[in-house]
């Protein structure tokens, strides 16, 4: 009887030894076995039909060790380097961008605790973003853009203190922006655009390293919060934001500003034009009533694009625009401007001003005939004003307002 038990014991010992030898993931594995299991779980959560032969994921062959292989196996994977021969490698980066994979992001991802970068952009992942990602405390880059992720962005995201880039743009995420996002003090780029976020923007001035913030194309409402002073790109277009834009005047490093298609009101004031690095300003389709352009005497101004169309701007056109030497694109259309076009504008057309739009205002006077010779290559429109245009001038194509609208405007009537 005892001999039979010994034979059974040695049989199982032998078969276990043979199984171990046949599985490279567990024989002198360079990669931590639990990390390999996570990679298998991730791949098994993807619809096999969506895994094309040229995708990185198709190269994940689990008969090989992910961190030991070379050549064309386990593409999109980077590993840590073991400190000694007794240590195992860990998965530190996954990049499956643009593979057009369909499926879910397996919550097992939260077990890759050495992960530094996760890029799943431009795929077709759906379902929620797993809250298990909050276990990835070494993560510096989380890029999930251009997928179909839905649900809310987990509030626990604030524990990812090393995160520098967070891009979840172009998904179907909803709910409010988590307040804990203000704890991500290493963040330099934050892109939440093209989702279904609602509520207000949290106070972000504590994110002192943030240089780019994009929350455009959502359903964000309320007034502007305080922003970090290092920010260079601020994109808030196509929301329901309201109030004044004075918080922007403090952002001395701001280069690109897009506040278009919101409900901002009051004045587009001098402070905005005095920002030394500002190059592109789009505050179109809002409810502004005044445009205050300061005279700029510093030749170092960077402003080259100004779009204020679709507001309720009144009065004469701002003469000080001619003091901005790098300005090439100007859109003042669809407002309530009146009076004559400043004669100082004409020399700019065809030289520095290459895109100039004044359509749908109440401007009057005669457009110089010589513009027919100097406006080659200039885009824009003077249509639907009260102007007298020379024959054949392309910028006047589309006609002017009826005389009744123009006369009524001069007497205080009319309008858009």
Automatic annotation (TrEMBL):
Domain Leucine-rich repeat-containing N-terminal plant-type: 33-80
Compartments where located: Membrane
Annotated TM spans: none
Highest taxon, organism lineage: Eukaryota
Keywords of this entry: Leucine-rich repeat, Membrane, Repeat, Signal
Matching InterPro entries: Leu-rich_rpt, LRR_dom_sf, LRR_N_plant-typ, RLP29
Cellular component terms (Gene Ontology): membrane
Stated name of the protein: Leucine-rich repeat protein
Organism (species): Petunia hybrida (Petunia)
Phylogenetic lineage: Eukaryota, Viridiplantae, Streptophyta, Embryophyta, Tracheophyta
Gene: LRR
């Amino acid at each position: 009887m005892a001999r039979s038990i010994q034979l059974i014991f040695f049989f199982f010992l032998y078969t276990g030894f043979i199984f171990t030898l046949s599985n490279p993931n567990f024989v002198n594995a360079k990669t931590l076995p639990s990390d390999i299991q996570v990679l298998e779980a991730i791949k098994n959560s993807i619809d096999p039909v969506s895994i094309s032969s040229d995708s990185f994921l198709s190269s994940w062959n689990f008969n090989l060790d992910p961190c030991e292989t070379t050549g064309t196996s386990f593409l999109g994977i980077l590993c840590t380097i073991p400190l000694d021969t007794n240590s195992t490698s860990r998965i530190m980066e996954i990049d499956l961008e643009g593979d057009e994979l369909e499926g879910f992001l397996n919550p097992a991802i939260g077990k890759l605790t050495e992960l530094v970068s996760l890029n799943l952009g431009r795929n077709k992942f759906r379902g929620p973003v797993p809250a298990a990602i909050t276990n990835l405390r070494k993560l510096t880059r989380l890029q999930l853009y251009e997928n179909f992720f839905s649900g809310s962005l987990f509030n626990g995201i604030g524990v990812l203190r090393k995160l520098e880039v967070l891009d979840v743009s172009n998904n179907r995420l909803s709910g409010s922006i988590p307040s804990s996002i203000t704890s991500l003090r290493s963040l330099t780029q934050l892109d939440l655009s093209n989702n279904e976020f609602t509520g207000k923007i949290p106070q972000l001035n504590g994110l002192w390293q943030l240089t780019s913030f994009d929350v455009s194309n959502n359903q964000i409402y309320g007034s502007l919060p305080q922003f970090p002073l290092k920010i260079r790109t601020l994109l808030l277009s196509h929301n329901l934001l309201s109030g004044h834009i004075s918080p922007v005047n403090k952002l001395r490093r701001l280069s690109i500003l897009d506040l278009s298609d919101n409900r901002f009101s009051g004045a587009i004031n001098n402070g905005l034009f005095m920002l030394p690095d500002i190059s592109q300003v789009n505050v179109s389709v809002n409810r502004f009533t005044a445009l205050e352009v300061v005279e700029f005497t510093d030749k170092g101004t960077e402003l080259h694009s100004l779009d204020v169309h679709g507001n309720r701007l009144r009065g004469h056109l701002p003469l000080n625009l001619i003091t901005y030497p790098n300005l090439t694109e100007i859109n003042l259309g669809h407002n309530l401007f009146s009076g004559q076009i400043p004669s100082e504008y004409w020399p700019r057309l065809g030289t520095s001003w290459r895109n100039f739009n004044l359509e749908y205002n109440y401007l009057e006077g005669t457009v110089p005939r010589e513009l027919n010779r100097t406006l080659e290559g200039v885009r824009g429109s003077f249509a639907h004003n009260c102007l007298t245009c020379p024959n054949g001038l392309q910028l006047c194509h589309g006609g002017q307002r009826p005389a009744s609208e123009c006369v009524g405007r001069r007497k205080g009537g009319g309008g858009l």
